[in-house]
Amino acid sequence: MTHASPMPASAAAETAHILSRLGVDPAILSGGTLVARSPITGEETARLVEISADDAKVAIDKAHQAYLTWRKVPAPRRGELIRLLGEELRAAKAELGRLVTLEAGKVTSEGLGEVQEMIDICDYAVGLSRQLFGLTIATERAEHRMMETWHPLGVVGVISAFNFPVAVWSWNAALAIVCGDAVVWKPSEKTPLTAIAVQALFERAAARFGAEAPAGLSTLLIGGREIGEVLVDHPRVPLVSATGSTAMGRKVGPKLAARFARAVLELGGNNAAIIAPTADLDLTLRGVAFSAMGTAGQRCTTLRRLFVHESVYDAFLPRLKAAYASVTVGDPRRDGVLVGPLIDQAAYAAMETALADAKAAGGVVSGGDRVSVDPADQAYYVRPALVEMGEQADVVLRETFAPILYVMKYKTFEEAVILQNDAPQGLSSSIFTNDMREAERFVSDEGSDCGIANVNLGPSGAEIGGAFGGEKETGGGREAGSDAWKAYMRRATNTLNYGRTLPLAQGVKFDV
Q: Is 300 a catalytic residue?
């Protein structure tokens, strides 16, 4: 295990500098009750004023008024605003990506990659603004035409998590805005500064767009859980897209259902991979290591369960252990670092608890201890943990947002698929195989039951062209590409009579 060399400059000073360059007023970074910290050093970076519940309701009402205006703007014109937002993001990519690193602890390439996803979804949404198509439907009535039309839905609420502090907003907002909706965003209390920076970039794009973009089209609500509850409960928010834990989803989903609002729930995934006898072990090693250790195990698509065929287990596991032993843990701003910090002390405590439970269940743990990264005494760096398990015990089926990979043997493909599908959480999955029949069965209706099923690559990562998600425990949430745009609109069926008669019931007549 190698460690990064001493820390670069103060995370707080660098954060303040970047926010200033992105157009954020320094005055809003102090004087409040919400303390922002960088997980890189544990140091305080801002004290933000939290919005009150009453003011949040006023902001949502203002967003509703913005929607009433914005829906009248032609969709291709709405796409122009998102094109301008994409330009602002391109110009600010380096600074915003660095801010993601500073606030979420992601390594430099992942911080930049997250901003690139924002740019990509803007490009996608610009094209989508000219493709909000409805169908012409065959009708049984003579001299009639039937068709479907799509209309804006209203205010879209977005609740995002710390691990993707800016991309999640963009997946929702870019589509919602070209669809004619307004957006109200409640970011994680752990990553509010990146949200403030993105809002500043949106406002810059809106100013360039002109007066057609109404005030309140994109609104930011800084606050705790109670502000998220306001968003979930507000009658003028017909759709809430929430990203976070399954525990959060269990609270949000019923509240939205109680008032017949829509939910797009992207929740944690206890993701698995299967290593088949024919797998290319070099390719597999790279895919498994990055998927399991990247972002310190704090992705919703992190690899957490690994099923290795008994014929290749003894050949593969020592290589995986060597990869774990050689990975660099440290300041994510430094070149060569793959594993940065956990987001906070609570994440570290959850990891310790899970490893203790795994040992109690007979697991053999390699790694998992805390790493000292001077001078970050208040930060939480850990060695990724490999846990060899004899069976899929309860702790394995309990998702822990930390770099823990549970490794188990299997005998048959059928057994591996059952084990893979046994977890209630299921966002992403993968198989490493050179057997075409196994690959096809894995992505068939008798294979993986997750929203994402990959062959010969790990479960982490997704492109915006395909709708991301499908978490099975919640019935599935889908954002970004494919036909995910339909969630942000309402469909109407229209019938037009261009004749001179009505198809009334046989024998029915009216005196006229």
A: yes
